[in-house]
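Hi support team,

I'm filing this because I wasn't sure whether my run with manganese (II) ion finished correctly. The job status page said complete, but I'd like someone to confirm that the output block is well-formed before I use it downstream. Pasting the exact inputs I used:
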Amino acid sequence: METNMTISTLPISTELIAEHNAALMASVDEDYDALGRKLSRTGVDIDVVKNKVAEFTVAVPSWGAGRGGTRFAKFPIPGEPTNIHEKLEDCAVINQLSQATPRVSPHFPWDKVDDYSALREEAASLGLGFDAVNSNTFQDQLGQAHSYSTGSLSSTDAATRAQAVEHNIECIEIGQKLGSTDLTVWVGDGTNFPGQQDLGRSLDRYLDSAAEVYAALPGTWRMLLEHKMFEPAFYSSVISDWGSSILAAQSLGDKCKCLVDLGHHAPNVNIEQIVARLHRFGKLGGFHFNDSKYGDDDLDSGSINPHQLFLVFNELIEAELHPREGFNPAYMIDQSHNVTDPIESMMASADAILTAYTKAILVDRQGLTAAQEANDTMLAFQALRSAYKTDTSPILAKVRQEKGGAIDMIQAYRTSKYRERKSQARKPVGLGSGIV
Ligand code: RM4
Ligand code: MN
Ligand code: MN
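And here is everything the job wrote out:
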């Protein structure tokens, strides 16, 4: 990709970003130097940390670019995207200002177009690539032959299962044209009533169908299974927990891994331990980052429990230091933005995710292991706590600035008046309820 072509098609003016950064640079440098001195007292080189953080990226979901909603309502904002082209443009803004989200994860059929090579080029001209493709067998589409009301991959109806398998294979084919190498499969299959379906046989049907999808995976592709405890099925989900997920992944084969969506667990579940367990068995395939307080699985990453996010990243650093074969998790944001501008939410979320990562890098690993070996509970805990307490924002600001992003992303975004401009140019979004 030619640099000047990229610059001319990017949605935010590079002069605006440079001007914005120039006004804030002196204070960032001052804070960065002060933090650098503090960290060097414990033998940590801040530039090494900064360079590591600069390499970390997280994908954004195409569906996150629009305002989501609840089962009850959706409140669109002017200038919201209504198709994949507009979504890509918004994702380009997020990446331009954050310099941390260079890939977009598409969802089909929502993002269907006629020409996928053209879409791939369009994304590239915006500085973006494509991440995992997501299939959708949790909704019926107009004109669809068989309804998913009885489930999809696990439906009691053979023709419905075949249709769901075929859709997943079509997603793989589209993904190949877009340059993806992962298929993420989340099904809404499950029941609302005890007795509605046989709990064992529905899993058998799921496994048979999933095996057909698995068999269609091209050489380097992976299939990522996403579990979810409830919603839309409120009594039982077919792949409800990490146990079902790892059993399914193990029976499907090496190219099948588990994807952990942070919002899909029972309240208070120890997600970081699940991460450690999945890694132990070489089955940690990826993440959907978000947060939750009660039943919602799509609040902004780190908005409710940033400490949990840090503990998850602490396990990921452990995993990175002790990799199992094929360890290469796909990192992605998966959120629904009901009350904020999605661009702002995803920039803030990328910042929360990178913050958790940076803090996890700062953990004194040797000290932690030594305290664990000596059964010194307090010192082990303090090894985590002292990293968690560190204000790493100067590192993140410096990383963004050096990569061409904005020191204060939200301020730069608001100054650009991007959304106002789009509200003139784009057609209004319809009402209706959101997605789960
Ligand atoms: C689900 C799940 C999936 C996402 C859909 C839109 O709850 O998190 O990853 O594809 O929502
Ligand atoms: Mn998800
Ligand atoms: Mn979800």
